[in-house]
Write a structure and sequence with these properties.
There is one protein chain. The chain contains eight helices and no strands. It has one domain (20-166). The protein starts with a helix and ends in a 14-residue tail after the last helix. The protein has 180 residues and is mainly alpha-helical.
């Protein structure tokens, strides 16, 4: 039994091939534009407000929607649904268990994963969005359920618009693969 357990860790396939330099540059440009759009909104439009537009999980979303555009996890349904659903769950868990952040964090991430699976919106950065709702700053906690709309929903929507425009400019790219 133990040998079989460790044997499963060998893997079954080879590493995927490298992508071209062109694809690397396109991924770089797309992610730069997407994150810059969200960060610019944060710096210029929301400056002086208690709102925040950019959260760490958007970095991971950028990897998917600009660097792995064919992945099912990078599609609009997954991007938007994953962030919004996970943000809601994260805020609810923090409000339910503010005195036990370790438990709220574990509950938020695991429940977000289950909910994303159940709704066909699995987007790995959504787990981080749920976690940020629990372990985030006082500024994040002060947002309450507004966190679901700003930054989670609005930030993801901005990145989606950039992905739709940018990923379809080169003839070698097409995004999305599916909507629903």
């Amino acid at each position: 039994m133990p040998v079989e357990f460790f044997h499963k860790m060998k893997g079954t396939t080879q590493s995927p091939p490298r992508v071209s330099l062109r694809e690397i540059l396109l991924s770089w440009m797309g992610s730069f534009l997407g994150i810059a759009a969200v960060a610019s909104m944060n710096s210029h439009v929301l400056e002086g407000s208690d709102l925040i537009m950019i959260i760490g999980s958007f970095g991971a979303s950028a990897v998917l929607i600009y660097g792995a555009i064919k992945s099912p996890l990078a599609q609009p349904r997954n991007l938007m649904g994953g962030h919004v659903l996970s943000a809601f769950i994260g805020v609810a868990c923090y409000k339910l268990l503010p005195e036990a952040p370790w438990l709220a964090a574990a509950l938020a991430v695991s429940t977000a994963i289950a909910a994303m699976h159940a709704t066909k919106t699995l987007h790995p950065p959504g787990g981080a969005t749920a976690l940020i709702a629990v372990i985030g700053t006082d500024q994040i906690h002060a947002l309450g359920f507004l966190y679901v709309l700003i930054p989670a929903g609005a930030g993801a929507a901005i990145m989606l618009v950039v992905a739709l425009i940018f990923n379809n400019l080169p003839s070698s790219r097409r995004y999305p693969e599916f909507w629903l």
